[in-house]
Amino acid sequence: MILTVLPRLLAITALAAASAATARTYVAPYIEVQQVLDVPISGDRDVLTYTALSAGVEAGASGRRLEGTLSYRYERRIPWGGDGAVPSDTHSGIARGSVQLVPNLLTLQAGAIATRTRVDPRGGGIDFLGRGNNVAQVYGGYVGPSLATRVSGLDVAASYRFGYVKTDNGFGGGDLGAGQFALNRYDRSISHTLGGSVGMDPGQLPFGWNVSGSYVREDARPLDQRFENGFVRGQVVVPVAPTLALTAGVGYEDIQISQQAVQRTAAGLPVIDSRGRYVADRAAPRQIGYDFEGLFYDAGVIWRPGRRTTLTATVGKRYGQFAATGSFVHQFDSRSGITIGVYNGIDSFGRSIGNSLSALPTQFAVPRTGLNNRFDGCVFGDQGTGGCFNTAFQSASTSNYRSRGINALYSATRGRTTVGLGIGYDERRYLGPILIANGLSAANVTDRSVIAQANAALAIDDRSSVSNQIFVAWYESGLPGADGVLTGGVTSSYFRRITDRLSGNATVAIYATDQEDYDTDIAGQLLLGARYQF
């Protein structure tokens, strides 16, 4: 099912292209062969040489009714040395698209991703080759229609979104430290999101108003976890100056998170199956992990000093606690901009992937490092648009959590040079009866992470270019006795078009991970490859 759901979601943009002949489109399938040398600079790993055979496609569309970007790559790695080295397969890809089914009324939105994620928040990170001892392959996507129209002077909107996320068994939880036990393993989730709103801008009245509502349900495995959230909210916007408005809102919501109880042994320990997942006790009643029903409210400002700048900021109370959110968007010019977002909500691994995908623009630059098209960091669009997936891929948590943090993106194009900078901080406080293998609960434990990434590409001439990337990530688990993890790396690639269809590339990279009580692991990679584009 993994390999059937993702291609269908990735194909939505391509299928829509057939019905939108006016769109500017490109489709570039390719095959590629690479030879990689992996040399440990420190640590106890073996020197490894392997051949990578790949096939993929790059595609995009831009038009009045159809917009989208797609990149997908399948890679087969064949090792030639190293103890215990075995062939492996990786899938990496990202897609985001929209097509107007009925112009200016009904739009179909879709997105998909295939990448690798950290499994346990206490384990190590993922290197440039997508490897590690704390890694799982993940596939996710969403699709759904959205409607926007005007009825008797009112702005009316409605939307539905279907989401799906699936992980494989992964490669374990990494080095967890003495006295640490593995957490439950994520399997898959299916989610449904339904929303609607009606309102009007200031003009006919001295203020604008909006009434909105939403219902979200997610069913996840293992333990048949269920998340349900319904709310209704009213908002008013009062202009107090040509560039400044005050806003306030109040709403009512009902949230419940539940799951099956864990089956236990005679000694009282959780029963774990062959895939490392807890076995549900279906004879026991469902457990309620989180249950909230009540009012929430907020107030803030909207500042628009010009068409290139927008600032929103709100403070209030939600989930029974203080909550602050906001955003800042500024376009320096037609080729550069910055975006900052502050978020606060209840999320899960599956829903956060769908939310991150839907927040992406339909046009963005697909990062290419030569070693691996990873999409677990930041993706950059034009004028500061884009998105960071650090919130989603901090770890493949099996539980819902209160998520708070901030992301900032900057992107610019100057002549032949393209630059992207991203930084994010994320904090998770877990909700519900989360169990670890010795029967202790991890509920209310808080994990934290920080990620910073910089991309820079330069077109030297019409036939050659260079691409560079540097990233640093820090992870800290709130579980007692857990060690913090610091990872980072730098890569530089040179690409040369030999003929109209054949190109070559060379890449050098260094990756390091440092975890308390373990030796720092540093490795270097060297790659030589050739790509044929059809």
Structural topology:
Layout (H helix, E strand, L loop, with lengths): L1 H16 L6 E19 L5 E15 L3 E14 L8 E15 L3 E13 L16 E17 L2 E14 L20 E13 L7 E14 L3 E17 L2 E16 L1 E2 L17 E2 L5 E20 L2 E10 L2 E13 L2 E12 L1 H11 L4 E2 L12 E4 L4 E3 L12 E14 L2 E14 L15 E14 L4 E13 L8 E13 L4 E14 L5 E13 L1
Antiparallel strand pairs: 1-2, 1-27, 2-3, 3-4, 4-5, 5-6, 6-7, 7-8, 8-9, 9-10, 10-11, 11-14, 12-13, 14-15, 15-16, 16-17, 17-21, 18-19, 19-20, 21-22, 22-23, 23-24, 24-25, 25-26, 26-27
Verbal overview:
With 534 residues, the protein is mostly beta strands. Helices cover 5% and strands 62% of the residues. The strands form 3 sheets. The protein has a 22-stranded antiparallel barrel. A 3-stranded antiparallel beta sheet has the order 18-19-20, with helices on one face. Strand 26 and strand 27 form a beta hairpin. It is globular, with a radius of gyration of 24 Å. The protein starts with a helix and ends with a strand.
- Backbone structural class: mainly beta
Radius of gyration over C-alpha positions, nearest whole angstrom: 24 Å
Mean pLDDT: 86
Strand content: over 45%
Helical residues, percent? under 10%
* Tally of DSSP β-strands: 27
The separation of the N and C termini measures 29 Å
Succession of helices and strands: HEEEEEEEEEEEEEEEEEHEEEEEEEEEE
- Shape, per Cα inertia axes: globular
Count of helical regions: 2
Poorly predicted segments: 1-21
In this structure, how is the largest beta sheet organized? Answer: 22 strands, antiparallel, barrel
